[in-house]
Amino acid sequence: MNDSEIVEHLKHNRNDKVLVILYKNLPVIKKMITSNGGNSEDAEDIFQEALIVLCMNVKKNGFTLSSKLSTYLYSICRYMWKDELKRRNKMVFSYTDTIKDTIDENALIAIQQEEQMKIAESVVKSLGERCKELLELFYSGKMKLKDIAEKMGYSSENTAKNQKYKCIETAKKNLREVNSNINTLTA
Amino acid sequence: MRSELLLIEKIELYIDGKLSPEETAIFENQLSEDASLREEVTLQRQIMGGIQRSLVKKELATAFIKYKTIALLWKLGVIGSGVITATIGIILLYNYLNTTAETTSPSTSEKPQLKTVLETKDTTLGFHTDSIIPVSLSTISEAGTNSYTPDKTATIKEEKPVSIKGVSSVDTTIKNETSAPKPVVVSSETRKNSSAVKNLSEKKKEQQLSTFFINPNAPVTWLGIDFTKAQFLDKDGNLKDGNNEQNEKISGAYFKEWNELIIAEKKRYDISGALRHEKITFTTDHINNMNDTIQIERLFVPDNSILNHLNSDDIQNLVNTYPLNEKQQGYGLVFIVESLDRQKKETNTWVTLIDIKSKQVLITEKMRANANGLGMRNFWARGFHNTINDLKERKYPEWQSKYKK
After folding, report:
1. Residues with Cβ < 8 Å from A158, sequence gap 6 or more?
2. Mean pLDDT of chain B
3. Considering only CB atoms, which chain A residues are within 8 Å of B326?
4. Which of A138, B253, B285, B391 has the lowest tally of Cβ within 10 angstroms?
5. Where are the alpha helices (DSSP H) in B278-348?
6. Domain coverage including residue B74
């Protein structure tokens, strides 16, 4: 499967078909990270984050792949690992390799948005299992509200819709509070 | 509510880029004029992003397991093929030596000796001796003493191991060429590995626990007191014994106060002593954030019939939702409060030790402690203090003798 086919699968939420293929890039990332102050588990974590960035970014309107997917993932991992080293107050990155510190601009924006997404993810998790399941089923785009109502035992599509509204509103309220706390702390 | 539902639907369509160009232009015009609408869109986008992230993470976890399994099978295939190739090589070598010997001194009495040699080798390599011997002998009898040709060797040697599928194809070739049954060594290795994968997490858990009790320098993080599952026995929310003191009403602020108390008075609330670990990091932000989301009124129960409402699976499920830093290593200790029982003046807390990275619960046990003291804060804080002391004096030695290996 070539890069553009993989991107097409990711764009249309058929991640299961291609993620295993993308994991074949992991050994290269492990090599890069373990030779720059990290261990195998660091590499797996960073690579997972890079795949999340790719999966999220690819769905945005106007996404184009300006390099090979392997290079794209490598540059994201390299950027994230350098960032992580900074956070750990370690700067042991070797500059001997020939890959320049260039990163796709959209990928950079997506990496910066990752923190916000992580917060939102934890807010959704804290809503409770029912709300989380309902929202995940709906926003995965794989089920219609009518089917979700049936699966989750709601009496009608309308009940499911109202429940979804309540869950979203609670999530927004909690997120608003968390954002406000963060703003206060960083002000 | 109808208009709110419609608004959410419109925002969703806008974020997904599913509005027509005209509708998009109108909506963006509204956005430029309406700050609250802009905020709604930003929050909605963030929530949808968070859900997508959660879904992608689940898919990644599945993909990673598949990737690891394929890598494991690949290794097994390589090892299996290596063993098969080595075995075939040995058999052919013996055949060749036998043929050479027979050329110089043809004697039928040497065949039983060859059988003995093969039996010994087969046993070592884990083959069914009975089934492999006829292969060798039939090869000899088919080829005749002098008619062994290198072509047959070439056919078998050229089989390259590619994956487990490759192994099967080698097996088939052997079967076709020599009528040999499938070597037992491959299937038994596969069975061993599947069972090993099954027990891996349990073994890892045992190792982690053992390390925790052996190594007093293992990094431990105090994560805080989690009240998100707490039930407060009193329909009015009066958590203080009202006999001598005026009742106070619980509020979310207390959750933070109790958590802060443990950090502020580390000697009194001796987590380090209780766990026999000197280096304790105190990171209660995640738990505080989660406690902040609790809707206080919903926590009160009128009777004690549902106070025992948690089990260890619930604890694991709750821990799974913790927004911990995935890059953090080491152990985490968290107190998950099940109930504050005003009638019995006691706290029921699940004292829980976890592996932070995997969020795996290593130990969780419900501990009951008496609460008393002046004022709302001190009354229930005493319960947590007693829990820590009980952990130090009684529970830790018990766990140590059970898990230290």
Report:
1. none
2. 73
3. 45
4. B253
5. 285-292, 312-320
6. 67-194
Instruction: Indicate whether B255 and B390 sit together in one domain.
Output: yes
What is the total count of domains within chain B? 2
Dihedral of alpha carbons A174, A180, A184, A185, sign: positive
Same domain for B223 and B103, yes or no, is: no
Q: Which residues of A touch B49 (CB under 8 A)?
A: 56, 113, 116-117, 120
Q: Is A48 on the interface with B (CB under 8 A)?
A: yes
Tell how far CA B237 is from the center of its chain.
Answer: 38
Burial class (CB in 10 A: 0-12, 13-18, 19+), B69: middle
- Regions in chain A scoring below 70 on pLDDT: 89-102, 185-187
B252 in the same domain as B106: no
ipTM of predicted complex:
0.86
Of B51, B60, B357, the CB nearest to A48: B60
User: Which one of B4, B49, B292 has the shortest CB-CB distance to A165?
Assistant: B4
| C-beta separation of A22 from A6 below 8 A | yes
| Chain-chain contact of B46 with A175 (C-beta, under 8 angstroms) | yes
- Specify if B201 maps to a domain: no
Residue at B13 is within a domain: no
**Which residues 90-109 of chain A have a CB within 8 Å of chain B?**
none
Same domain, B222 and B339: yes
